[in-house]
């Protein structure tokens, strides 16, 4: 059986989540983004110095990655680094 290939536009949280699900379903994926870092609006290219979330962590976590104890009202750096762990 031939594996299907999917292109994902954007390496923000939604693009990374889509990629994770597709990999689990045995698709070959390529993620494209115009910026050099992951994270979309949470990347250093977009975030401003004092940017913090206004939500509780469990609304922003991946179901398979429950390392969110420090994420309630977290800084952009914490949010930016969180999805990197699923990209390894």
UniProtKB/TrEMBL annotation:
Annotated organism of origin: Adineta steineri
Protein name: Flavin-containing monooxygenase
Listed cofactors: FAD
Family: Belongs to the FMO family.
EC assignment: 1.-.-.-
GO terms for MF: flavin adenine dinucleotide binding; N,N-dimethylaniline monooxygenase activity; NADP binding
Keywords: FAD, Flavoprotein, Monooxygenase, Oxidoreductase
Record carries keyword Chaperone: no
Superkingdom of source: Eukaryota
């Amino acid at each position: 059986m031939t594996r299907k290939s999917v292109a994902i536009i954007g390496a923000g949280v939604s693009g990374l989540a889509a990629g994770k699900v597709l990999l689990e379903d045995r698709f070959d994926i390529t993620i494209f983004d115009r910026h050099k870092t992951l994270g979309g609006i949470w990347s250093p290219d977009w975030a401003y110095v004092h940017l913090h979330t206004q939500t509780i962590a469990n609304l922003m976590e991946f179901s398979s990655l429950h390392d969110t104890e420090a994420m309630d009202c977290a800084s952009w750096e914490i949010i930016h680094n969180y999805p990197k762990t699923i990209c390894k």
